Amino acid sequence: MTQFDVHRNSGKHRDDIPYIVLVQSSIYDGYRRRVVVPLVKKSIIGKISNPRFNPTFKIEKLQVVLHPLEIVSVANDQLGEFVESLSDEGGRIMDALDELLTQAWG
Predict the structure, then answer these.
(1) What is the SS3 assignment for 73?
(2) C-alpha dist (Å) from residue 73 to 20, 38, 50, 62, 63
(3) Is residue 12 part of a domain?
(4) What's residue 104's pLDDT?
């Protein structure tokens, strides 16, 4: 399991959220859980008002959108099958998390 690996969602919302992407640093590989962000079907999301916060990716010919507000940790043994890596898109994923977590005043 590597940062930016995409896995099938084995949870109850897998019809709308077919995939999850690991965002956790490898520094914490010793833990029994992984921090993931859902990849939601673009058809469910509709119009994207902030593409930096909700970047779109194509996984197995399906358009999906990163949904950082639904970030969660899951047990390693609950991760679905590995699908592919988004390591080439890691910058876009980190930009979205930066949008979520950066302190803003005003």
Answers:
(1) strand
(2) 11, 11, 24, 24, 23
(3) yes
(4) 67
- The answer to whether residue 78 is domain-embedded is yes
For the entire predicted model, the pTM comes to 0.93
Query: 40 with 46: CB under 8 angstroms?
Result: no
**What mean pLDDT is predicted for residues 76-84?**
96
Q: Is residue 106 part of a domain?
A: no
Is residue 72 in a domain? yes
Q: How far apart are CA 102 and CA 19, in angstroms?
A: 25
How many Cβ atoms from other residues are within 10 Å of residue 102's Cβ?
Answer: 7
Range of the domain at 76: 5-101
What CATH number is given to the structural domain containing 75? 2.30.30.110
Q: How many domains does the chain have?
A: 1
DSSP state of 82: E
Residues 41-75: pLDDT tens digits? 999 988 999 999 999 999 999 999 999 999 999 99
